[in-house]
Design a protein that fits this description.
The protein has 293 residues and is an alpha/beta fold. It has 2 domains: 171 residues, HUPs (Rossmann fold, 3-Layer(aba) Sandwich); 61 residues, Adenine nucleotide alpha hydrolases-like domains (SH3 type barrels, Roll), CATH 2.30.30. The protein contains 7 helices and 10 strands. A 4-stranded mixed β-sheet has the order 8-7-10-9, with no helix packed on it. Strands 1-2 form a two-stranded parallel sheet.
Amino acid sequence: MSGGVDSSVTAHILKNRGLNVEAIFMRNWDTRDERGECPSELDYRDVKAVCQQLDIKCHEINLVKEYWNTVFSFTLDEYARGRTPNPDILCNREIKFGVLLKAITRRLGPFQWFATGHYARTISTGDSTMLYRGLDRRKDQSYYLAAVDSKYFSRTVFPLGLLDKKRDVRKLALSAGLVTAEKEESMGICFVGERRRFDSFLAEYLPQRSGDILSDSGKLLGKHNGMFTKTIGQSAGISGWQDKWYIYAKDMTSNRMYAVQNRNNPLLHSTMISTGPVHWISGMPPVLRIRFR
């Protein structure tokens, strides 16, 4: 349980099914934010409150060291190389469905099922269990679980996979009187928080080396504060222009970024993609789906 409404309702649903439910709070980060508060500690407080309401046991497992070594260090390394990683995908594969499951077994012994509050579904056919999108397309989180080895899904349940966040989950939380029923949804990365600029956070760990932002014709448009501060397709943040500029390329050797105006500029599009290693989760090459907003 994370301390949010989704995992709270997940526990509530399983408890109402008559199952023996025990909550696990996974602590991945323990530093304080700019207000002197530790978001992780505040979330743990909410988890304990919900567990008390549901009359279920609550266990805290500290994986700060493992998260730093496996997820955070990799994330910093990718940004230092000018790439934009997704730490949530790595966390699910290496921590939540890796280190955490082993830690639970060591501490509590064997267990039958592992449940999370993800908006996703699984379907078992024969000896295989495949991952499917949650029915609430706005909240679907199968993307973040796609790198997890499918062997773990045979004993994983996603009670929210068939539910709609606004229509069903909030209503269930309110009807059950859960203390997290009206808690705002967390949108930030766990180690950054929601009130800080991500580039400012990264600047605490990566060297800031300013460089030029050029147009596709080579005209100097402005300066950047480090190659990690912008990703491809992101607004360049250049003031003084009527139309926005968008980053379409980064040259790590020259420490330069390149930008164009108009989101539909062909330089922002691509007909090729380089990827690897590939993790097929359905036993056959799927139709490619690019996640975008």
